[in-house]
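Bench notes, afternoon.
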Amino acid sequence: MKGFEGVRYKMLEIKNLCVGFEGKMILTGVNMTVKDGEVHALMGPNGSGKTTLAYVLMGNPKYKIITGKIILNGEDITKLGPDERAKKGLFLSFQMPVEVPGVTITNFLRQAYNSLNERKISLLEFRALLEEKCKELGIDAKFLNRYLNQGFSGGEKKKVEILQMLVLNPKIAVLDETDSGLDIDALKKISEGIKKFMAPEKSVLIITHYKRILEYVNPSKVSVMIEGKIAMEGKEELVKSLEERGYSWISDK
C-alpha cells in the first residue's frame, strides 16, 4: 500500500518543533509532512523522540512546546487540547494502552464515538458497527463486554487500539509501535485493519523500530528520527538500508 494516485495534499505538517520534558529538550527541530492517502513510517532508535512526538501531536500537556507549529488540514492546532484535536480528526494508538476497570469496550467506544460525531446512533446501530469491525480484525464479539484492556494480552490490547481506529474513523491515525510484541497472526490482522482504514482522504503515521509491519503495509514515505529531529527521509528502500546497516549508518554521516 504505497498511497493513492492523483494530487495529494498536506494532511499533517510539523514545522521546526522543539519540545521539552522535565527540563530536558527531547525534540530539537522536527520538520515533517504527512500527505493525504499516505502511509508514512517514522523510524529511529530507542530514545530518539518518536513517542514524544506522538504525545505532542495529540496534545499531552506534560510536554512543553518551545517553538514550532503543528498544522492539521491547513489549521494550526498547536495550542488546542486533546479533545479538540480528536474532533478535528486526529487519533493516537498508544504504545502502552492503559487498563480501565469497570468500563466495557462497548461503552467506552460508544461514548467516544458520540463525543466526536454530531449524529448520535442508537445502541443497536452501534453494536452492529462494532461487530462488523470486530469481524474484520478477527475479534470475538463477546470480547466487547470485557473491561477495557483489563487482563488483556499485548496483542489483544493492540487489536483493540485498531478497533478504536476503525470505529472512530479519524482523518489521520498515529500508531505508536502498534507492532511491538505481536505474533505473526496478530500482526497480519492489524495490518489488514490498517489497509481497511486507508482511503484517499486519510493518512496513517506508523511509528516503529522494525520493518515487520512495513512489509505488510508498504509505506509510501519513510522518515528517520535521530536525537530529536528528522535525520533522513526516503522511500521503502530506506527501510532495507536501515535493516542492513543499522541506525548508526545515519548517525555517523
